[in-house]
């Protein structure tokens, strides 16, 4: 039987990575453009819907509830499983880590509450849902994430910029690994609960550890520089995105890691890419010292915390 998946937001980071991973696994992959298509029609006959839609922060309150309601309705009408990329916003700054599928969602800030309510809507819906929860992305191309937009933006000038305390553990996910985990979980969906919340541990790194790893990967040594938040503070009154970024600042100063024990039990042979290999792929090609070949054989099992 043909295995078919509909990717929403295929031009975005998560959608693009999942599109590649499903294609490589032999799935029939369809992309949906919400500016022109009808979701209910596009979802007809597919087994899985990957919801990679992610509006800009300032639009979350207005758009997120309706977009996900549309996805729930389409999945229910077609008996499809929905994959949702979960994040760590739901836990809040006062919840001790490690964060697992059993950790309470205690976020009090507006963006965190939107995510809490969105995930709760899937849980109430009765639609087959897999929430794959991860930390910040390491992508294979510049895509406007924290790593390429802030941390490594000035590497060519010899600077690595870090937005938080450098001794605080922070969760990261290499997108190709995360997408392969999504495919593996989808292929086991018949043994999962109707609503499955599955953390992806990825890499747990302090700012200093990330800086050291980047220095191992680049052709010339760089210096560690703290990010200044004052420009965002000054722009806050008239720049909505700035307000949102400041709202989420706490994650750079709150020690956290994701507990991947559940994922490991479900997919014990899931390959994971060594950090140094992932960074070679995540950094601009002109800056890296390719001592580690990007096609190096991957390890299996959970990447250990590096903290």
TrEMBL record:
A Pfam family reported for this protein in Swiss-Prot or TrEMBL: RmlD_sub_bind
Domain RmlD-like substrate binding, first and last residues per copy: 4-147
Highest taxon of the lineage: Bacteria
Annotated SUPFAM superfamilies: NAD(P)-binding Rossmann-fold domains
InterPro entries recorded: NAD(P)-bd_dom_sf, RmlD-like-bd
Stretches assigned to coiled coil: none
Name of the molecule in the record: Sugar nucleotide-binding protein
Protein species of origin: Parasedimentitalea maritima
């Amino acid at each position: 039987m043909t295995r078919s998946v509909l990717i929403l937001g295929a031009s975005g980071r998560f959608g693009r990575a999942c599109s590649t991973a499903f294609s490589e696994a032999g799935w029939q992959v369809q992309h949906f453009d919400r500016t022109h298509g009808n979701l209910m029609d596009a979802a007809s006959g597919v087994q899985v819907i990957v919801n990679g839609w992610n509006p800009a922060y300032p639009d979350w309150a207005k758009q997120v509830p309706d977009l996900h309601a549309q996805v729930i309705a389409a999945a229910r009408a077609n008996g499809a499983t929905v994959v949702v990329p979960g994040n760590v916003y739901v836990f809040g700054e006062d919840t001790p880590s490690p964060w697992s599928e059993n950790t309470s969602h205690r976020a009090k800030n507006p963006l965190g509450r939107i995510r809490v309510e969105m995930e709760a809507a899937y849980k109430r819906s009765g639609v087959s849902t897999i929430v794959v929860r991860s930390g910040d992305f390491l992508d294979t191309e510049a895509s406007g994430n924290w790593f390429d937009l802030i941390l490594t933006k000035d590497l060519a000038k010899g600077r690595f910029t870090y937005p938080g305390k450098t001794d605080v553990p922070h969760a990261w996910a290499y997108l190709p690994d995360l997408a392969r985990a999504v495919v593996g979980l989808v292929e086991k969906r018949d043994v999962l609960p109707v609503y499955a919340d599955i953390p992806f541990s990825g890499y747990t790194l302090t700012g200093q550890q990330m800086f050291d790893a980047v220095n191992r990967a680049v052709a010339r040594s760089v210096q560690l520089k703290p990010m200044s938040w004052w420009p965002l503070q000054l722009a806050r009154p008239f720049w909505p995105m700035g307000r949102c970024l400041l709202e989420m600042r706490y994650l750079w100063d709150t020690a956290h890691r994701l507990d991947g024990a559940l994922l490991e039990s479900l997919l014990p042979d899931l390959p994971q890419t060594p950090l140094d290999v992932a960074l070679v792929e995540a950094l601009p090609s002109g800056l890296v010292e390719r001592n580690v070949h990007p096609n190096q054989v991957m390890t299996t099992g959970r990447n250990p915390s590096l903290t």
